[in-house]
Amino acid sequence: HILAAVGLIGLALFPQMMEDSYSGLMAAIILYAVGGGLLEVLVSPIVEACPTERKAAAMSLLHSFYCWGHMGVVILSTAFFYLFGIDQWQVLAVIWAAVPLANALYFFLVPIRTLAEEEEGLSIRRLSGKMVFWILMVLMICAGASEQAVSQWASAFAESGLHVSKSVGDLAGPCAFAFFMGVSRVVSAKYSDRISLERIMLGSGGLCVVSYLLIALSPWPVLSLAGCALCGFAVGALWPSTFSLAMKKIPGGGTAMFALFALAGDIGCAGGPLVVGRISGVFGDDLRIGILAALVFPVILTVGVLASGRSKGGARNKTVSSGC
């Protein structure tokens, strides 16, 4: 939390303090990225360690708050820029730093249980020897890529397709995407005890494929934008469900497992938008073609879910040969 707060404050201060403004900006970004990354790695095992019966529901509900936070940032930042002008962005960065600072103080009062009280989690070496671990790593990469390939380009897609301002594009694109993603995670939490994780993920993967095709092939921009919102609903369950599936397939995976899966997800979050941007650039900045190319991610994810269903977790899980 402190690293995230320092990074956000640094966005306003570091470029002014350093001779090279860009280096100052990058230093701030690295700080809050490290802070946010650590939070992502640590919060999931903390929730998993809570004495609740419906672990998958708790995990899905936890990740829904990422969506509500995303919406809050988009809406409140848009309102701030509308009232005070975008040239006051440094002030906004400092204001947002209050959130991680408040959380840092609040966490001093929160009792935290460890994930495994009597035994340590699996080492990275033992995790890497499990075939199902690598399947789940691929699922995390594809979950992150499927989500961000659309989310990161939703605003630009809305602006170019509907010919609206950036403010309207942010609300119609990323904000709608985040809203339906949050709804998906709440719905997934509600029905997690009635529908298996594999079925939830297969349904989400299939719906994601449909939404990608709708975005890329619809002749009407409004319908393509509706496809972006549908994509938000489709991908919502993928990330938390993969975490829950990992806890089911690899019991006792520990914090190292969550860290590696978060890393894989972040690789996907970076790779998905990159693929869309590069392919779109080759075809005259046509985002539809870029989105169509990124269809490979939900397709691979769906195949991976089927493969994970054939892999047994725990001690009976097959291992891959290792040089160690």
Can you describe what's shown?
GO terms for molecular function: transmembrane transporter activity. By secondary structure, the protein is mostly helical. It has a single domain (2-314), classed as Growth Hormone, Chain: A, CATH 1.20.1250. Helix content is 78%, strand content 0%. It has helices spanning 2-17, 21-49, 55-84, 89-96, 98-107, 124-128, 131-151, 154-162, 166-191, 197-217, 221-235, 238-249, 254-282, 287-293, 296-310. The radius of gyration is 20 Å and the shape is globular. Mean pLDDT is 85; it is low at 314-324.
The CATH superfamily name is: MFS general substrate transporter like domains
Secondary structure category: mainly alpha
**Low-pLDDT segments, ≥5 res:** 314-324
Extended strand count: 0
The level 1 CATH classification is: Mainly Alpha
The main pleated sheet reads as: none
The figure for the number of domains is: 1
Shape, per Cα inertia axes: globular
Q: Give the CATH architecture.
A: Up-down Bundle
Gap from first CA to last CA: 36 Å
Q: What is the ordering of alpha helices and beta strands?
A: HHHHHHHHHHHHHHH
User: What's the tally of helices?
Assistant: 15
Fraction of residues in H or I helices: over 70%
Membrane topology: Multi-pass membrane protein
Keywords: Membrane, Transmembrane, Transmembrane helix, Transport
Organism: Hungatella hathewayi DSM 13479
Family: Belongs to the major facilitator superfamily.
